[in-house]
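Bit of a strange request maybe. I'm writing a small parser for structure token strings and I need a real example to test against, not something I typed by hand. Could someone generate the tokens for this chain?
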Amino acid sequence: MHALVVIAHPNPNSLTHAIANHVTQGITCPHTFEIADLTAEGFDPRYNTEDVDHFHQRIPAPKDVAAEQARLDRADALVLVFPIYWWSFPGMLKGWIDRVFARGWAYAERPDGTLVQKLQRLPIHLVAVGGADAGTFTRHGYDTAMKAQIEHGIFGYCGAPVVQSEFLLNTDAGAQDGHFAQAKAIGAQVFAAPH
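Reply from user aminoacidic:
Good idea to test on real output. This should exercise your parser:
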């Protein structure tokens, strides 16, 4: 089985990149993985007029979007590794989702208006990296907000089951070894968890 590991951080020396690398260390043979470093690859996250025309099904998917969809079509699991910016995704990752998880590919609507969830085959693994502690997130409802906004609002809408949703918090230098061990364990569970 094959995993697509998407990284959304502009600095290749970041803790986010290091955590993603440890996730991939947990994905062992016979399984394979591919890393999609959105910044290094130059993905354009801006939702543009071509995307609007594609949404209205006047034109096919833009070439860069079609390439990302093909990469996801080859994947048996999607792992998103991202820093928490303003209690959400970074703009790069949000734009990737806005453009790639498009109408017609990720979901559709029947003539009677009912939803067709087209990504039920794609298990999702979320790895969010944040500097605050768990108590802060719980106290202010971020843990619940993430479930509503990301797990339900995006992946639930498309039918993609979220099988892991992990926060790696308190990113001080002393906590990194624990985060790396947890990231490797997350990777080991990508194809071990029931889908």
